[in-house]
Design brief:
The chain is α/β, with parallel strands linked by helices and 181 residues long. 38% of the residues lie in helices and 17% in strands.
Length: 181
């Protein structure tokens, strides 16, 4: 009987190693995915995608692949996201501040059914871009992306910045905040 008990763990050992390796591999994949994200485009995430989304005013918006100013801030939010809702006043203030400082801000509302997307987009104004089908892919919301005039992404910021005023958020993102000399 002593020998029988000793053999049982040895028979289960290969399965334990296989399960452990699978779990470690899955955890590594999840960690890498959460750190790196899916990117802003299906082609690698280092450039803004060449897509045109409809605006709240029912116009076709400009391509996200380029920016009319030297720097663009693109903010992606979703109606069901509590942090997005909490940050709405800051995002609106940030858009106004950056406009005064020559930075274009594009706000995209998506990841939900069109009625909810349109209702939340109304908080941001008629030029808000609508993305109910998640054509523009981000790894989470809210998501802040800074790009240059050519559409190259220079910075990604998932989550709501840890500040309550537009000037501090702009500074945190490395954007002009009007407090310079």
């Amino acid at each position: 009987m002593v020998n029988d008990a000793a053999e049982t763990p040895l028979k289960n050992t290969p399965w334990a190693w296989i399960v452990t390796c699978v779990l470690i591999g899955a955890a590594t994949g999840v960690l890498a995915y959460s750190i790196l994200g899916r990117g802003a485009s299906a082609k690698g995430g280092n450039r803004m995608p060449d897509i045109r989304l409809q605006t709240l005013s029912l116009q076709t918006g400009p391509s996200l692949a380029s920016c009319p100013t030297a720097t663009c801030l693109t903010v992606y939010v979703a109606p069901w996201c509590g942090y997005c809702r909490q940050g709405t006043p800051i995002i609106i203030g940030l858009k106004k501040l950056l406009e005064k400082n020559g930075v274009t801000t594009r706000i995209i509302v998506g990841m939900d059914a069109m009625p909810a997307v349109r209702a939340y987009a109304a908080d941001f104004g008629p030029d808000t871009l609508l993305d109910p089908d998640s054509s523009f892919r981000v790894s989470g919301v809210p998501h802040f992306l800074i790009s240059d005039a050519s559409g190259a992404i220079t910075k990604k910021g998932p989550g709501l910045p840890p500040y309550d005023d537009p000037e501090s958020v702009a500074g945190y993102l490395g954007l002009p905040n009007g407090s310079g000399p």
